[in-house]
Amino acid sequence: MNALRLVQGALSAKAPPIAPRARVIGGLIALVAAATGFLAAAGALTGFAADRIAGRWSAELSAVATVRVSAPAEGDTDAIALSALAVLESTPGVASAHLLSEAESRALLSPWLGPDADIAALPVPALIDVQLEPGGPDVEEVRRRLALDAPGAVWDDHREWRAPLIVAARGLRRAAAAGVLLSTGALAAMVAVAATATLWSGSGVVRTLKLIGAEDRFISRAFERPFALRAAIGAGLGALVAALIAANMPPVEGIENFTAGGLGADWRVILITPFAAALIAGLTALGATRAAAHFVLRGR
């Protein structure tokens, strides 16, 4: 069934004004649509923002690497670290390499050990921060050279950190999609029940129309427009509330800003969300009303 025709039918000024007034049911449809629109939009926006943040973190991690230098027994850690640094600086695909000083290592460990920890008394490895060029180096070749020139130096490209982020982002996308589908299904069920109840409550009008030769399609159209408009307006308002909340979320420590940082320049996503929710809800209500009318009228 063509979606454009459904929308045109719902908004047509020629829809027959014969449907019984059902203000309570119409209000319930709008309320349920607002609730489902809010939940679907909140889930979709949260999933989208979290996916963008995870993607950004993964991209940042893929652009850096770390070399840990732990000297073997009776080895000189500083000398091995300098050898590893020389290897990295001469490696194609490495943009820069920086050997962290003791003060930088202390600052790195202070969140866990405290600012006054004496790291000189701890077996802390020397760390080299490596910035990578696009494409990066030949990792196997780097590891081979480090093993020869700087035994005890370990290349870490943070792959074990990136993989969980990608898996988590994929799970969030699926959860957001499931939330939208469940909300749409709940709205469709509510509208179908409401349309069925309204048709049965107006059985006298329906019977009279059928006696004078009205087709089922004519009768069905009388219910489609009001139900679709109520669902669209309710879902649009609910999604608008969710979008406004998402747009005004306070910054989260360590994540710059969950919305602005997560959505970046895609504020159009927040702006489009209410209209998308209204369109989906309207089409869902149209389909559910048409299916319910077909079921009831065919059974008469």
UniProtKB/TrEMBL annotation:
The chain crosses the membrane at residues 24-50, 180-206, 227-247, 267-288. It comes from the Bacteria. Keywords: Cell cycle, Cell division, Membrane, Transmembrane, Transmembrane helix. GO terms for biological process: cell division. This is Cell division protein FtsX. It comes from Pikeienuella piscinae.
